[in-house]
Amino acid sequence: MVTALITHPACLTHVPPSGHPERPERLRSVLAALDADEFKPLIRKEAPQVTVEALARVHDRDYIQEVLAAVPATGIVQFDPDTYVSPGSREAMLRAAGALVAGVDVVLSGEAKNVFCAVRPPGHHAMPARAMGFCIFNNVAVGALHARVAHGINRIAVVDFDVHHGNGTEAMFFEDPALFYASTHQWPYYPGTGGPRDPRPDHIVDLPLSAGAGSADFRRAFSGVLIPALDRFAPELLFISAGFDAHENDPLAQLRLQDEDYFWATEQLCALAQRRCQSRVVSTLEGGYDLAALARSAKAHVQALMAAA
């Protein structure tokens, strides 16, 4: 079995204002790293555009239409202090979410054992009717609900190791005990959710880490709490919200992870997936804003996916 890489050039055409950290160069750096000879075995696929029906499983229809109508012919439109769209954003957003739909189809058809979706804009902050934190549509939640509706997969898990809590994904999963969400993230920090005293059901696992926490703290939370909780949940399909901004070189946060921590975490998740869900894993790019650290971390992540395939 092999690993698939799903991306599309249109994801480079979502262009925020100059100086914005979520810039096209992020994806270029990841794709350049994955052009190395060791990644030649990857099955490479272009992301399709997602349908409105697939988006509407997690987003309000009025919100979807408002977002698509807001994309300008020229210039930039601002949704919140951090989130913008430009003329190329419509196709980028639709293909970023569409990559997760395609990734689910590829894994569940048996064409590949696991998938990495190298796309932007990211998605895990997007709420049912609100854009925030660079995110407009919640890509990973769209993929999860596609797996349920199109393939009959009921018990679905998302593990999110982005430095920011994925409040959008958690909100979408909160009331459904068959949708598991677990997050390691810096706290207190943006977006202010996922704190240690926040009430949550058993299928939501938040593991806040203090500023300055490093590899040992991350691995302790991951192996000691997150993996056992995920094992108890026994998913039929596992998604990863793969943000690489907990790296010590990232300019937007204060955790201190290393390149090898992303290989290790991915290895742990793939081992769990082998036990519980036939090794079926769909991963998608979230954050990561130091270009060199992002490229190395994403490379380590995909290396671990390939080793598990």
Structural description of this entry:
The chain has 309 residues and is of the alpha/beta class. The chain has a single domain (3-308), classed as Arginase, Chain A. It contains nine helices and ten strands. The chain has helices spanning 24-33, 52-55, 61-70, 89-109, 139-151, 167-173, 215-233, 259-276, 291-308; strands spanning 3-7, 43-46, 77-80, 83-85, 114-117, 156-160, 179-186, 204-209, 237-242, 281-285. Strands 2-1-5-10-9-6-7-8 form an eight-stranded parallel β-sheet, with helices on both faces. Strands 3-4 form a two-stranded antiparallel sheet. Helix 1 (24-33) crosses helix 9 (291-308), helix 7 (215-233) runs parallel beside helix 8 and helix 8 (259-276) runs parallel beside helix 9 (291-308). The chain is globular and about 50 Å long. The N and C termini lie close together (5 Å).
